[in-house]
Amino acid sequence: MRVAVVGGTGVLGTAVVRELGARGHEVRVVSRTAPATGVTEHRAADLATGSGLESALNGCDTVVDAVSARRRTRSVMVDGVRRLLEAERQAGIGHHVEISIVGCDQVPIAYYQAKVAQEQVITTGEVPWTLLRATQFHELVTEILALPARWRIAPHTTAKVQPIDVSAVATRLADAVDNGPAGRIPDIAGPSVHTITELADIYRNHSGRKLLPLPVPIPGRIGRALRSGALCLDERGEAIGIGYADWLSRLTH
Ligand SMILES: NC(=O)c1ccc[n+]([C@@H]2O[C@H](COP(=O)([O-])OP(=O)(O)OC[C@H]3O[C@@H](n4cnc5c(N)ncnc54)[C@H](OP(=O)(O)O)[C@@H]3O)[C@@H](O)[C@H]2O)c1
Questions:
Q1: Is residue 78 within 6 Å of ligand 1 at its C-beta?
Q2: Model pLDDT for residues 43-99, shown as the tens digit of each residue
Q3: How many angstroms is it from 70 CA to the middle of ligand 1?
C-alpha cells in the first residue's frame, strides 16, 4: 500500500514511517521541511496554507496524520486537517488515520481543545477514518523535565500521567493502516500511572544530577483534572509498551 505520513519527520511520524516501511508499505513523508536522511520519498506541504497538498497525496491509498503545532495550533491542526481531508477527498484517499490524546476532552488546555475540534472534523468528514487516542509520549515527559533540570529544579506536583513508548503507538497506527477504516479504536497508554513528582524522581535517578524539588501548583479546572487522572486510561483502554524508567535506561544502552 502507498501511505502518506503527514508530519512524518516528527517524534511519532518518524516511528510510524519506520514501522510502515518495515511492513513493506511504500511510504511518502509529507512535511514542510525535508528530513536530513534516511527517507526515500519526501513531499513538501503546509497544512496552514494547503500548499503542496495535492501533489503530496497523489497516488496514495492511505494518509496518517502525525502533524503537531504548538503555535498556530488551530490553524494547522483544525483548519489544516480540514484542508488535508479536502485534498484527500479529491485524491480519492480511502482511509485517514488520526492520532489524538487520551482525556483531551476532559482537560481545558488550548492544545487539547484543538485536538477535540480536530477529532470532530475527522469523525464528521467524508473520508473513511480510524481514530486512536494515546497518552503523552516518554519524549514529552523528558522534555518537560529536562527544561527545569537545566536550573537544577525538579517540578513536584501530583498531576498524573501514564506515559507511553512512541514505538508502541506507531505499531498501533501501522495496524490501523493494515486493518482499514475502523472508526474510534481503543485508547492506549503506557504500563503505569505516575505523578509528575514520581517521574521527576525517575528522571533525577537516571541523570544522576542533584535537583531541587520545586512544588508547582496547577490551579483551577486544569489542575483538578490533571490531579484526578483525566489524562490516564479508563477501564476500556489498553496499557502497552515499556514504562518511563525502562525507556530512559534503554536510551543510554
Ligand atoms: N507528543 C505527545 O506526547 C503526544 C501524545 C499523544 C498524541 N500526540 C499527537 O501525535 C501527533 C504528533 O505529535 P509529535 O509530538 O510527534 O509531533 P512533533 O514531533 O512536534 O512533529 C510535528 C510534525 O508536524 C510537522 N508539521 C508542523 N507544522 C506543519 C504544517 N504547518 N504543515 C505540515 N506539517 C507540519 C512537522 O514537520 P515540519 O515542521 O517540517 O513541517 C513534524 O513532522 C500530534 O497529533 C499530537 O497531538 C502527541
A1: no
A2: 999 999 999 999 999 999 999 999 999 999 999 999 999 999 999 999 999 999 999
A3: 9
